[in-house]
Amino acid sequence: MYKQYLRQAWQLMKQNRFFSAVYIIGTGLAISMVMVMAVVYHIRTANIAPEVNRDRMCYVTNVSFNMNDDKGHLNSCVGPRFAKEVMYNLKTPEAVAVATMTQMMPFTVGDVFMQAPGHDEAPKVSLMGCNDQFWRVYAFTFEEGKPFTEADFQSGLPRAVLTESLSRKLFRKTEVTGQTVLINDVKYIVSGVVADVSGVASDVCADVWIPYTSMAVIMNKMADEKEGSANILVANILLRDADDIGLLKDELAQEVKRYNTTLTEGQVTCNDPVSYVDQMVGSLLRMDVKQTYMTLSIVLLLFLLVPALNLSGLNTSHMQDRIPEIGVRKAFGAPRGTLMSQIFVENMLLMLPGGVAGLLFSYVLVFLFRNLLLSSGVFAMQMGTGGSIFLSAGMLLNWEVFLYAFVVCLVLNLLSSMVPAWRAVKVNITEALNA
Amino acid sequence: MITLTNLEKIYRTKEIETVALENVNLTVNKGEFLSIMGPSGCGKSTLLNIIGLLDSPTSGSVEIAGTNTVNMNDKQLATFRNQKLGFVFQSFHLINSLNVLDNVELPLLYRKVSAKERRAAAEAVLEKVGLSHRMRHFPTQLSGGQCQRVAIARAIVGNPAIILADEPTGNLDSKMGAEVMELLHKLNKEDGRTIVMVTHNDEQAKQTSRTVRFFDGRQVM
Q: Which residue, of A413, B24, B96, B112, has the greatest Cβ tally within 10 A?
């Protein structure tokens, strides 16, 4: 039956070329707008290298140090002492990556310049301090060498991992393991070179990664209760299972309580761990995640409703031409539901090429506006800390994005074809035959 | 086979009321070839539509093959039409975006019949109406007579007991009209199908088993 519907739809497409072309273009344009949002959502939330565990990630980013006797408080990120005595003690996670918060770096470290001894070029770079677990949590592609080790991290040895393009800029090659580089005039030894990281991976994006234990600006605060507790680090926690977040929350609360018993100058509070998607989606509209999803769904529906109304007009006039056919089908025993499903299937055939066109157009739009759509925020764009945004085929061409496109086509089809179809199949048979 | 009792059809608008059929009592026997005649607007087609369950009467009953159809819902009517009735229309009503074979398969599409069986049945009836060589053609590529033969093939593919033909030769020249009439007679005599035909043509009516005439919505003889 469906084979015949599709054959007829194909024949109708050939017979009504102008209608089909307008319909496909209209669908394509309508779908592309929504697909831009879907593609951006996918790139932001799916497991994309090196952030291959986004579905199991959660974050502790805010730590407040409240001084005794209400003498003041410090709201900041995780401090090195807090990381060492609280975050590294957690048993629930599979691993805890602690890294400097990119947005805070310009204020605490200032501009960072790198130079290879004997070379003139000293480009400004984006630096990230991190621990050894960082390399376990995130899947970097090492072109050369390897990450710094736990021993390197514990000892605060000056080791650096560079991106491929930085390595080429500094040395004009990537085989630079063991070579010395100067980071703001401090000597570091290159331990490895990784493939460039797109700015869409905002947790990890940088040009160079070093053990944060080698950064005086952080480690000098270790002994200080206040700035040792609240500083510029973030804890990126890899859970064994996404559902462990409740367990982690309880364990973290216990650890913070224990940590507070070691403090004399004040007490620490920190935010509950927030999952990757919750953080990403929740920060979008500064709403509860459920509310955000609800709001986004309404916006998407409105995005679709306007073109759906236009397509519905086209469908209505097209259905008017087919009313005698509907009369014949009803005369020979077609129930209304069967006719509705036929019209739905036929429209879907028109909708799908539109969907493909819309998806391709949305790729073009995402590519052209990638800095606007995929940057870590206006602040990151202004400060240049977001890294360069480049897109890989894997980010765009994957079954999840195709599924989004198909669902959008399905919804658009439902919105645009069902009312005209219902009106057409409701027409009395004798009237339909004489139409 | 078909029994109409006290049948009445009134079309009502806000201003006027038009009586299309009034007190029609008619029985069509199994295997009969009945022709309905009368001037334009006398209610012939309305009657045929009511017999074909395409329209409902204002009052009275329509009994077909022992089943009173008046209280059936849309879905039951659709199933009944699909299984018991075949239609041949004056303007053929073939679907131009389907080829001949797909057009003929149409009634079987709404039964639980496999694609293979549908195809075989459609090919068999097209053979019967002498159009097996036109199966892949589209209606726009056929002559009027061929189109009506396709329409007849479509009407009989589901093996209905009753065929309702509304001026089946009205859009055909005399030669093609004669061919179509010959085919209908063949279906009546050889297959024993009951045929009810609306016609303006006296000659064609004379060839049928019985003729009823209508005038202003009433059966006059």
A: A413
